[in-house]
Amino acid sequence: MQLRVRALETVLTEKGYVDPAALDRIIEAYETRIGPHIGARVVARAWADPTFKKALLADASQAIETLGLEQKVGDHLIAVENTASTHNMIVCTLCSCYPWDVLGLPPAWYKSTPYRARTVKEPRTVLADFGVTLPADKTIRVWDSTAETRFIVLPMRPEGTEGWSEERLASLVTRDSMIGTGLAKTASEVAA
């Protein structure tokens, strides 16, 4: 795949369709200013700081601004919290609205018609397709993104992470856990 991308980039550059400096700026943006590492930082702060967590759940758009982050996609970001009794999932049934500034580029499956249709009808089955099996008594709540409103899931903090730094906590957070199609990594998965 990397060879194909490089070959395509070379041809497009040679023909004058693509400016290599522009590509470098785009790549740099996705490596540093956009992506799931941003969302992981937000989740880690919420796990470590109860005041920030309360602010995030009250108004995620405003809360992330206190971290020096500005949401540019959609008008409003809403954080929904997974708890012992409720698991949240995000979908966009109309198209593929997604908070890419905090989660990075959406995965191909997020934009697929089967995911968009099945998630609202059979969320438990969709979760099982992703390898997530929840207790039968756990409520699953599906949130439908729009062009104006995007969602991020605040996954449950894994046990055994007391006293961890925010940076180390962020290493537990996956893109899928912030969509709700996955869970945060366990402490043993990132044992230092």
Task: Give the arrangement of secondary structure elements.
Elements: H1 2-14, H2 20-32, H3 36-48, H4 50-58, H5 60-65, E1 76-81, E2 86-91, H6 100-103, H7 108-111, H8 113-121, H9 123-129, E3 139-144, E4 149-154, H10 166-170, H11 175-179
Parallel strand pairs: 1-4, 2-3
Helix pairs in contact: 3-4, 8-9
Describe the structure.
The mean pLDDT is 90. This protein has 2 domains: 32 residues; 155 residues, Nitrile hydratase alpha /Thiocyanate hydrolase gamma (Nitrile Hydratase, Chain A). The protein is built from 11 helices and 4 strands. 30% of the residues are buried. The longest helix is centred in the first third of the chain and has 13 residues. It has 192 residues and is α/β, with parallel strands linked by helices.
Quick gist of this model?
The chain is an alpha/beta fold and 192 residues long.
Q: What is the element string, with H for helices and E for strands?
A: HHHHHEEHHHHEEHH
- At the fold tier of CATH, the topology name of the largest domain is Nitrile Hydratase, Chain A
Distance between the termini: 32 Å
CATH class of the largest domain: Alpha Beta
The number of strands is: 4
- Provide the gyration radius in Å: 18 Å
Domains counted in the coordinates: how many? Answer: 2
Biggest sheet, spatial arrangement of strands: 1-4
CATH architecture annotation name of the largest domain: Alpha-Beta Complex
Q: How many alpha or pi helices?
A: 11
Helix content: 40-55%
Spans with pLDDT under 50 lasting ≥5 residues?
none
